[in-house]
Amino acid sequence: MKRIILLVAIVFTTVFNAIPEDAVHRLDNELIKSFFRQQKELLIKKTEFLKFNSFLDDLSMRESSMNPDTFNTLGYIGEFQFGKLALKDVGLDSITFKNFKKNPKIFPKKLQRKAVTKLIKLNVMRLKISIKKYKGRYVKNIKITERGLIGASHIAGAGN
């Protein structure tokens, strides 16, 4: 056993010493750079996730005071006030105003969050040209933002 450990130590030392010191230094720098790149990417993803959730919370507050069981007289339901067309867009046209009014549990909060995420993705695709054209411009001293365009598309529909 001692011979094996000694042999491994000799081989490791020989191989390690055969690598020029500046190459080891370059390797260390590349590993460090790679590590920090990965950490930066993770931080960006986490920040984007938190911003998106904050956006959903703001939208929910504006639409329903964050109440997933609410409905209004115009036929809009849930936390994000889904209409018939929005529900159809996300493949949930089986959920109707009438059924939801009888039993809001048919459209639970978690499903509403998934549905609004899907709807926002669809709207972003539909708004791609408008976002590119108007983002950063000012209308009546109000800066047009991607977030604002997405919010407006949720309320009025992406085509409006």
Structure described in brief:
The chain has 160 residues and is mainly alpha-helical. 69% of the residues lie in helices and 2% in strands.
Radius of gyration: 27 Å
Form type:
extended
Beta-strand proportion: under 5%
Sheet with the most strands?
Answer: 2 strands, antiparallel
H and E string: HHHHHEEH
Strand order of the largest sheet: 1-2
Decide which structural class fits the backbone: mainly alpha
SS element count, helices = 6
Task: Compute the number of strand runs.
Answer: 2
Helicity, as a percent range: 55-70%
Overall mean pLDDT stands at 84
Report the uncertain regions: none
The termini sit apart by 77 Å
What features would you describe in this structure?
With 160 residues, the protein is an all-alpha fold. 69% of the residues lie in helices and 2% in strands. α5 (109-134) packs across α6 (146-156). The longest helix has 44 residues, at 21-64. It starts with a helix and ends with a helix. The mean pLDDT is 84.
